[in-house]
Amino acid sequence: MQTKLTLRIEEELIDRAKSYSQRTGKSVSQLFADYIKMLPGTEKPKDEPVPTPIVQSMRGVLRGARIDEGDYRRYLEEKHR
Known about the structure:
single chain, mainly alpha, elongated
């Protein structure tokens, strides 16, 4: 169900939103709704891809690991010797 919402924001932001709306072909209302859907703690957009089981199984594998860019560079140097 859709309902009306009135917002009070700076005129410059309204102008930017309208300009972006015209460029993208989306209404300002749709832009606002899309932004709210992206906020943490809100429902995921329905078109967001679901990670594959393999990707899901890899989540948290490196939790607590102390790996940095230097480690990756050393790995690449050894790999390409």
